[in-house]
Amino acid sequence: DGGITQSPKYLFRKEGQNVTLSCEQNLNHDAMYWYRQDPGQGLRLIYYSQIVNDFQKGDIAEGYSVSREKKESFPLTVTSAQKNPTAFYLCASSIDLGRIGNGYGYTFGSGTRLTVV
Amino acid sequence: RKEVEQDPGPFNVPEGATVAFNCTYSNSASQSFFWYRQDCRKEPKLLMSVYSSGNEDGRFTAQLNRASQYISLLIRDSKLSDSATYLCVVRSNDYKLSFGAGTTVTVRA
Fold it and tell me: If phi over 0 gives left and psi between -120 and 50 gives alpha, with beta otherwise, what is residue A65?
């Protein structure tokens, strides 16, 4: 079955450490996104990519980096510059940027819960 | 002002009851609207799109009021399995979906 796989499910980061969250999809979707979710807040967009080797900053990109070397993969690195990284991170994809409306919506991965220890 | 605002609830209702709640959005140029369902500690899943004329999907009815800039979700004959957080989602420009913080519904036996 097609879908999005995020790993790991839980991740613990020490102060000053960089960590990378994996996101892989086999839906043949062009567009991919990273969001973070904090309690009592809506999802906030970190980065998005509409095509291989291209990505754009979202609303809260500071302290994060991404790459899009393959269509299927969109890993997110949480760097030591991100001062409050504890959150639920969600990767999503859509057929393309232009078709997230018209009933298509997003497909989400199951998320990674990152905690600073 | 937040782009999408929702009453966080919780709405506690007995099985079989009807529950309805709204979501307001700030961008009058918004084009597409969705309701997503999110179970505790899980990812959001698309429940239904919201069309201008209103639409139903089984026990769920969604309405859009562009003049007042809100969308609504009504759940009839509530089931225990309807207990979840319902996210209001608005397409506010060409690439981005804006998410509300969610309305929590708890259906009790």
Answer: beta
Q: Are B97 and B89 in contact (CB under 8 A)?
A: yes
- Flag if A58 and B43 touch (Cβ within 8 Å): no
Determine the distance in angstroms separating the CA of B15 from the nearest CA of chain A, rounded to an integer. Answer: 26
Strand A112-116, strand A10-13: pairing? parallel
Q: Are the beta carbons of A95 and A31 closer than 8 angstroms?
A: yes
Contact A42/B44, CB-based, under 8 Å?
no
Q: Are B104 and B85 in contact (CB under 8 A)?
A: yes
Query: How far apart are the C-alpha atoms of A94 and B102, rounded to whole Å?
Result: 21
Q: Which residues of chain B have pLDDT under 70?
A: 93-95
Contact of B7 with B105, CB cutoff 8 Å: no
Compute the nearest-CA separation of A83 from chain B (Å): 22
pLDDT, average across residues A30-54: 93
pLDDT for A1? 66
